Amino acid sequence: RECNRMALAVLEIRNWAADMVDRDDPLLIEQIQARLLPRRGIFANPDEIIVTLGAQNALYMLSTLLMGRGSRVAMEDPGYPDARSIFQLAGAETVPVRIDAEGVVTQEIPADCDFVFVTPSHHCPTMVPLSDRRRRDLLAGAVENDQIILEDGYDSQLLDDAPQQALKSIDRSGRVIYVGSLSKTLAPGLRLGYIVASADLVAELRALRRFMLRHPPANNQRAVALFLSLGHHEALVRKLSAAFAERRRRLVHAVSAFLPEWQSTDSAGGSSVWLKGPPGMDTKALADAALARSVIIEPGERFFAERENHVRFMRLGISSIALQHIEPGIRELATAARRRPAAA
Amino acid sequence: RECNRMALAVLEIRNWAADMVDRDDPLLIEQIQARLLPRRGIFANPDEIIVTLGAQNALYMLSTLLMGRGSRVAMEDPGYPDARSIFQLAGAETVPVRIDAEGVVTQEIPADCDFVFVTPSHHCPTMVPLSDRRRRDLLAGAVENDQIILEDGYDSQLLDDAPQQALKSIDRSGRVIYVGSLSKTLAPGLRLGYIVASADLVAELRALRRFMLRHPPANNQRAVALFLSLGHHEALVRKLSAAFAERRRRLVHAVSAFLPEWQSTDSAGGSSVWLKGPPGMDTKALADAALARSVIIEPGERFFAERENHVRFMRLGISSIALQHIEPGIRELATAARRRPAAA
Fold it and tell me: Residue B219 is nearest to which of A16, A215, A220, comparing CB atoms?
């Protein structure tokens, strides 16, 4: 908030009021380069970074530019449903690839895919980090099969047990395009993300973005740049990460106490917890029953390529729940689950 | 600025920090509906309005949704070059139509065009308003030839001698899609515009926007909504319009005094002035010579479908020049024009 105020000082307004056409705020680029990327092991030049309207806009631009009818994209399954929709909207065919406790099963990525979309820092939605072995596999496969890897640094700003290095940081072949977001640590409503790619590709993305929306709002770019430059973001990330860890601990504890028949993935971190219900459970019906008790859960089926067989899963968000509401919430959820006749 | 501060109050942050997926700030929609549109004679329901990242993003979304290979779009010539590029990027063919003192020559719009793109409030770049006769012609032709009209309310928020009614306000056939912008009266850097169309089309635009960028930054939506709701925008528009009128008067006067061989269109208003130089003048060379004297002009050729034959034109912006710099600027420009050998 303070930085948003600073961005409103008269001198700063001169810096953001004008139309920037295809450029970004140089201070924000510098802060992404100097503060955000090195924490993930990525070192990039300013001309290798472009600011986007959030990670989703980044994926939309990349798919518009790179994909077309006939493109094949290997996708984690379960995986990020909006990415799947965006790639399909661009005309690409998406190919589901299984997930296990080490993340996406790289051996099962078809050689004829042109792109591989992955969330290696925290897998969306299970939060599992991609293992080192799989990371090496993925990169070697991309070289062998001439594939481009789209790395979504999902929840990657958080400091937790998930690996800190981005896949892009160990890529020597230039095949990894990195997508980052500030939605999870600042506010999703701000819509600020970025892409790290080759200077050539970034230049093409700028040309596309110029027609799509010219540039992300310059006042927000400047406010976030100031926020980063003063070190506030590091402090916020530490605070959020600690708060999320504590909420996750309480949530997993409450689930094992009140929903013992549900399995949660061993949470390495992130902003949500992924759960698998007992056989016959239908989380869509459960979501309605829970909502009647003021508890919000997210049914998991939308994360799967084939929804029908996956009505047992759900995701519980921890990014905005207060600590004292977690246990009562899970109690209510357990009551709702008991009252609900399981799906036939 | 005050409203941006208000949007930062804790209670308001709750209203914008969250991800809005495909929705807009209801307060902003309400303010557009109640304050901006009626001034142009447009009465729309909330579900007929969608907020965009500026007018350009509005045109990009409309072209992505409505146009494809084989689409033919009639365009004013000279006209808004970015619109031309956006339509071509979507695969459409653009067809130039001549401009005269009444605006676009509607009789020359080919019957086989699927779309007509017009800037009837102030023609871009000449600022001529489209005459009443031509407006009726345009609407009748659209009905007869089954055409969709894309109305860009270019500079339409300004209060000046140009007609106040939008083409959309007199459309009874539902063939006009209206695009508005807050760039000219607030700041282009904010990137806020809107589309007024049928509820069905707006729903489709929301579905597309959800994947393209989810929603325009919610903090800016809320800040502008507060600004509008307090009546500040009306006051700002009156102030800006009066300031622009005075600058335009001084500019036209200085041009007739120091550049007597240049013709300016009788300016009905708007944020710039359009000038035609003497035979042999090349405004690209003049722009370089003028820049060396700290005077910025915009060569006019980029507004034409065929650039080569239109190197005599230029546009002078008045939206950010101080009154006392106008006459000295035109003097410098005249000196630069005299020193420059005219293009062979």
Answer: A220
Residues with Cβ within 8 Å of residue A256, at least 6 apart in sequence: none
Considering Cα of A136, then A141, then A142, then A147, what sign does the dihedral take? negative
A219 phi and psi angles, rounded to 5 deg: -65, -40
Q: Tell me how far apart the alpha carbons of residues A250 and A118 are, in angstroms, rounded to a whole number.
A: 29
- Cα(B18)–Cα(A189) distance, rounded to whole angstroms? 5
Give A18's pLDDT tier (boundaries 50, 70, 90). confident
What is the β-pairing status of strands A313-317 and A298-299? antiparallel
Query: What is the average pLDDT score of chain A?
Result: 90
pLDDT in tens, B280-310: 899 999 999 999 999 999 999 999 999 888 9
**In whole angstroms, what is the distance from residue A265 CA to residue A102 CA?**
11
* Residue of higher predicted confidence among B143 and B340: B143
Residue A78, both tokens: 């379960």
Q: Which residues of A touch B85 (CB under 8 A)?
A: 211
Long-range contacts of B60-64 (CB under 8 A, 24+ apart): B60/A211, B60/A212, B60/A213, B60/B86, B61/B195, B61/B205, B61/B208, B61/B209, B61/B212, B62/B150, B62/B177, B62/B179, B62/B195, B62/B205, B63/B87, B63/B89, B63/B90, B63/B92, B64/B90, B64/B208, B64/B212
Which of the 8 DSSP states describes residue A180?
E
For residue A13, list chain B residues with Cβ-Cβ distance below 8 A. 1, 187
Which residue, A124, A127, A130, is CA-closest to A82? A124
Residue A303, helix vs strand vs coil:
helix
ipTM score assigned to the predicted complex: 0.87
Q: Which of A8, A60, A219 sits opposite B190 (nearest CB)?
A: A219
Q: Which domains does chain A have, with CATH numbers?
A: 2-230 (3.40.640.10), 234-339 (3.90.1150.10)
**A319 contact B CB<8A:** no
**Cross-chain Cβ contact A8/B4 below 8 Å:** yes
Which among A258, A163, A220, A255 is positioned nearest to A20, based on CA atoms?
Answer: A220
The rounded radius of gyration (Å) of the Cα atoms in chain B is 21
Instruction: Find which of B14, B51, B53 to mutate to test the A interface (most A CBs within 10 Å of its CB).
Output: B53
Nearest CA in chain A to B1: A8
**Cα separations in angstroms, B233 against B31, B141, B230:** 11, 36, 8
* Tokens, residue B77: 């010539």
Q: Which pLDDT tens digit goes with each residue over A237-277?
A: 889 899 999 999 999 999 999 999 999 886 678 889 999 99
Name which of B1, B5, B89 is nearest A211 (Cβ-Cβ).
Answer: B89
Name residue, tokens 């990027």: B89
Closest Cβ opposite residue B213 in set A17, A191, A218? A191
Residues of chain A found within 8 Å of residue B57, distances taken between Cβ atoms: 212-214
Cβ of A189 and B20 within 8 Å? yes
Among B residues 55-114, those touching chain A with beta carbons less than 8 Å apart: 56-57, 60, 82, 85-86, 89
Q: Do A187 and B18 touch (CB under 8 A)?
A: yes
The answer to whether residues B81 and B119 touch, using CB atoms and an 8 Å cutoff, is no
Distance from CA of B257 to the nearest CA of A (A): 31
Helix locations, chain B, DSSP H:
2-6, 10-16, 26-31, 54-66, 81-89, 132-145, 199-212, 218-229, 232-258, 283-292, 326-339
Q: How far apart are CA B74 and CA B18, in angstroms?
A: 41
Our measurement of the distance from residue B242's CA atom to the centroid of its chain's CA atoms, rounded to an integer in Å, reads 19
Distances (CA, A) of A220 to A225, A266, B18, B329: 8, 36, 15, 34
